[in-house]
Amino acid sequence: MSQSATEAALTSRKDGQFIHFDKVTKRFGDNVVLNDLCFAMGAGERVTLIGPSGSGKTTILRMLMTLMQPDTGTIRVGEDYLHHEERGGRLVEASEAHIRKVRQRITMVFQSFNLFPNMRVLRNVTEAPVHVLGLSKEEAEERALGLLAMVGLDHKIDSYPSQLSGGQQQRVAIARALAMQPDVLLLDEVTSALDPELAAGVLDVLRDVAKTTDVTMLCVTHAMKFARDISHRVLMFCEGKIIEAAPPEQMFDSPEHERTRSFLQSVLEES
Amino acid sequence: MTWDWGYAWETLPQLLDGLGVTVLATLAGTAIALVLGLIFTVLRRSSSRWIAIPTEILVEFIRSTPLLVQLFVLFFVLPQAGIELSAFMTGVIGLGLHYATYTSEVYRSGIEGVPAGQWEAAKALNLPARRVWTSVILPQAVPPSIPALGNYAIAMFKETPQLTVITVMELLSVARQLGAENYRYLEPVTIIGVLFLALSLPTAWLVRRMERRLVPAPRPV
Ligand SMILES: Nc1ncnc2c1ncn2[C@@H]1O[C@H](COP(=O)(O)OP(=O)(O)OP(=O)(O)O)[C@@H](O)[C@H]1O
Ligand SMILES: [Mg+2]
User: Fold this and answer.
1) Whose CA is nearest to atom 8 of ligand 1?
2) Is the pTM of this model over 0.90?
3) What ipTM describes this predicted complex?
4) C-alpha angle B72/B74/B76, rounded to 5°?
């Protein structure tokens, strides 16, 4: 792919730019993880990030989830800046209230599930809808039961997370995230901690989510078949830069960049 | 000097009254220490430096000065500032305040034991700060802290005799009074030793049992 084709693919294929990274830089000490990163995603777009370990994929997701702040640059979600807000015509550090308002639209599923071990499955899923969205207990439970049925765990509502397999826990975590009816769903290697069979179940659930909702998805995964099935675009990261961006067929079947080719080769050998 | 059973028997009712005061002071002091320690811990973790640092200094100050001195300050200085409390109340507040600095440490390590992923999940669900504390963090941090908190309650129980210096009629004060009136200390002092032992031992045993149940064994690496 030519340089300008990559640039074209860097901007969203869907209309509008719903998520917008503008010259985002992130360092840890001397380690420059992201350097003037620019990229945009459209509403409803599903993008997969691939790239070698340490290339900054998780960092991007964590910044979108406001678990981390960019050192310089801005991130916008819809009309709003995520870590900043405009006050008196100037861009200043966002207040907690502003962050909470924007963060409402985003949620994340983690590699290590992070279910609340002190709550039963049902309450894991109803807790935020009740206390963040203001749903009544009945409404939240109805929503939770629907989602737990979708992930095939409606028979486990009274279990504690410790009584579930990793795959089951991750499916509950997906139900818990979807219960927030997010606009953006972030998925960071959600099957890396799972055995292949359990991973397959989780990926099927996510395929279902991709097919039946128009949630914007940004995922990091090594499951290339899955990435091919659900993604509109795949971005190849290397040393904090996007070195290649293309639709999945193109990225996986005829990658342009030598680095992409060797990376894909190594992933194939691994699995 | 031989043991006088008749005298021992005679002093017992008064000593049991003293025991009541001791136990009550311990329970009330523990209640204060449990609540205040938690408040200290949450304030010390505040994102506002104007809250976190003064709390840290206060906690360090109270922890590094003797309880006895604090009791003197509360008992003799507060009234001069126009705050009049009974000796018992002063003692309870002194014990509670002093031990709150220890329980605060216990809560702190309990909270540090909650994996970072729990905070992150709470953020990903946009839970408000208060809810994060009450429904996610504390329910995971407090149970493993209970045995250590129990040990501090026992330690406080054994330190209640210090309240004698501010005229609280707890066990030691009663024993001293009996001894002074009758010129015989052996029996009352021995009895209070036995009473302390009789309450400390089973409580310590209970705490150790809870410890086995509540503190998770370290995970195999
Ligand atoms: N909290 C942190 N403190 C210091 N360095 C960090 C921190 N988080 C990430 N890094 C560094 O930032 C770089 C990018 O990390 P990141 O987790 O984003 O990579 P990744 O692409 O997700 O890698 P992987 O495929 O291994 O998950 C790495 O060099 C990492 O060591
Ligand atoms: Mg990562």
Assistant:
1) A59
2) no
3) 0.91
4) 60
